[in-house]
Amino acid sequence: MQAKTWIHILAVAFTVLTFQACQTASDAEYTGFACASEPGTWRGLPDCTLSPVRQAEAVSDSIFFTFVSSFIVRDGRIYIPHGDRGQLLVADTTFRLVRTIGRKGKGPGEFGQPDFLDLSPAGWLWADGHGRGFLAHDTLGQLLAAVKHPGFMISRFFADAQNRLWLSIPGETQGDILVIDTSGQIVKGIANRFAHVPERLTEKRSHCDLLKGPQGTFFAISDSEGIIRKFDLDGNLLAECNLRTLPLIERYFEECQRIRQNYEGNPDQLTLVLFNDAAVAPGSETLYLLMFYHDDQLQTYCDRILVLDFSACQPLGTLQLTTPTGEDPCFLSIATDGNRLYAYDSNSASFFTYALPGK
Q: Higher confidence at residue 3 or residue 176?
């Protein structure tokens, strides 16, 4: 079972109902928070409701989805790890199959259960799921490299222009963020600790989704601690956005504290997720943070995206993602490409495509 799935199973099994918490077909770049019509409000923020322009329950109506913890969209191609098949699926934006990459197995060049992937600027498609390691293919499916990694990785990684892997593996002696070259050597370690997280909980509560940013930077987005940092590729910390001071996020941490105080077991075993996934608008510092939250009746939701201007550490508003059935969706992963937002809903086991509001 995928690593990040266990976090959500723990959340449900122990009633960890955490607070994680307009549509246009124009090709205009997203430059701020706007809706096709007057936005509503949610938790004191402007709120825009998006309806899907497409739903896909399968690739080419034949390869159905199970659990998709991450995917990427690049230049009109969607790359999806399929854990059950032990393959990477490449589809166009209408979800017609272009090709499959890899095969299931435990031998050289084979996947067990891939969860996370990224495409380097040089065209190396890296994916985990090869034991405790990664495989790199070109976009036509030719195997290029295989490397191992230390520690336990359960979050997004990225690959740079030198085809190196950038991984969040907190608590490792070399650093909390590791850079691994194509031979499997650790070439850089970067400290990324949170002062409020006790040392004994570093490995559990300091995981970050790593996303490429503009002009040789990357973002480290904490899954559970409400802190986002921007680094350059030399490992220098450039800026930090602490969302814990915002009323929207402050309420989440108050609920976390209440849950831990009332929990009958070891509270250290509870990992409380704030963001299911994240995406960055290309060439900008606008972040889309897929939230996991609950209402006053402790009903869990995962249907809203917090749109954040990182440079100002200021929320612009929220996007509520709807589905045609009207039932409550639970989105696990998102990606953007131009003025399109793609999102995977675990309840319907479907991908949905939305038009991002723009000017």
A: 176
